Amino acid sequence: MVSKIKLKSKRTKAQTPAPKKDQIVGSKKNPKGSAGGSRGKIEVSQKIEKTLKNKKDEHNDKYKAKSKRVDLGMLKAVYRRGAGAFSVSHRPKITSRDQWALARVNAFLKLVGTGERKKAYNTDLDLLPSGHPQKSDLSEVYSLAPNKYSHIDFKPPQGAITAAKRSLKRRAEMPPSKRGMTAVGIARARDLANGKTLSPETVKRMLAYFTRHEVDKKGSTWDEYGKGRQAWDGWGGDAGFAFARKVVKQMKSVDEKNQKLRAYGEAIQVNALNEYDVPEGLTIGKTFKTLSLGQVSSRMSGDAIGKEINTDLLNELVRVFNERKVNDPVIIDWQHATSPFQGKSPAPPESGIALGMIIDLEVKDDGLYAVPAYNEEGLKVVEKSGGILWSSPEYIHGEIFTRDGGDKVGDAQLLAITLTPRPAQSHNKIDRITLSEDLMEEQVKELQAKLAAKDELVKELEEKLKEMKDEQDATMNAEHDDAEKKKEHYDDSEKKAEKEDDEDKNKMMEDDKKDHNKMSENFRQDVALLNEVQALRESVKKLEAENTQIKCDEAVSSLLLSLIHISEPTRPY
């Protein structure tokens, strides 16, 4: 007899199931859904309402920002949810429903004021004040797939569900030595057998598994439902493989479309400059990536420099920037000249002057992007660099407090972005600093895109012409063979019929000739198209040559200027 062992994950004390006496379902005063929003009509005792009002007043006296202020409706909703959660699970030492619910209110107030919360506490984000950086709908909190994949069905098909159930059943019937699947595979089989909606990452892992293990079908124990067959079905079998291929293809299509839209958005960025509130005297520059995801290491020792840069850090930098950019503007300087953390004496005015400020930050898939606004000196520095310039952000990763009251701001803050030819990060991980895209390069790229489209069209036309020619040759050969056979079998008594057939054939040949002439005309048009493509190629080469010459001239001019400066005599002091 095979014994079944059910593995259970260890619960925290807060997840201890509530005893039966505390398991209250429903309420006449507050029906289901009453805590679904901060405007719900929730009834609490006079004592609790007074307590909530006092907490609200204390909190609002401390935090003046609109995105950090709370009202009584919010706190009632949080309290009601906490009271309901008490019926499901709570710490054994907590015996009061009010105590458990008020503890949740305190956690909510801490989240509103400081942004701090435990990772698992995400059930009240929809109640946060408008403008709070962590505010979101509950539907987004519990969604497995990002909104961009909302049209894709991540629920496994019936065939995959059946295969997973079969795998678990057959595996249980096998002796321990013949049981396949890892712990991950067993978990996947259980999710599929239960028809659980999968996440995009899980579907990608399914496709990776099937691609690697398709060779297992040739194994000697496959027909005996050996370990390889058990694992294959546990991941959904052939139906799961087809499902994973389809869904991953749909996701790739969405990702490619989003990438094109992102590129298009960056291309028309200049047209959207009026959306920014640019201070007087400053000129907006080209957006650049200033922080890349990953760990930065020392070239001298290989040791890690600071903590690993991840999306949580970048999101916190953006959140604090948006909240504090009026009080703590992020300036742009040269070679960390104005940094108070360099351990050197203050920089003189000629090198310590600010070059501009950052007016916006955005987190993208590959890092943190900054929108700069330069002053006159900053424009000169960027222009003279000729693109041989990068950025080096200066930020604090740890608890941050205000300088005008000591309130906690968050866990990371961007202080400044310095311009340097030698950044700490790898040059290929971040963007060059330029004022705008080179016009010549844009023209070359545009012509290259047109050329690629023309090449694709010509390729399609050539394939169609070949198909039409092959089809015509096959038809004419078949007709010729038929005519030869008829000629051999016809006797003198059927000459009249042959004559009629000859007339029909002549007519067909005339039609074929017309078709051939038409094809020739199409071919001539395609030749003209090929000539146009060749002309485009020559235009691209010419523009690239001109662009290279311009850059060479600029480099020579720069070198001559530097030689002139070197040759000037030094004045005695």
Structural write-up:
With about 575 residues, the protein is an alpha+beta fold. The protein folds into four domains: about 15-140, no CATH class; about 160-250, no CATH class; about 280-435, no CATH class; about 440-480 and about 500-565. It is about 50% helix and about 10% strand. The chain is built from 14 helices and seven strands. The chain has helices at about 45-60, 70-85, 95-115, 140, 160-175, 185-195, 200-215, 225-235, 235-265, 310-325, 350, 375-385, 440-490, 495-565, and strands spanning about 285, 290, 330-335, 355-365, 365-375, 390-400, 410-420. Strands 1, 2, 3, 4, 5, 6 and 7 form a seven-stranded mixed β-sheet that branches. Helix 2 (about 70-85) packs across helix 3 and helix 5 (about 160-175) runs antiparallel to helix 8. The protein is flat, with a radius of gyration of 36 Å.
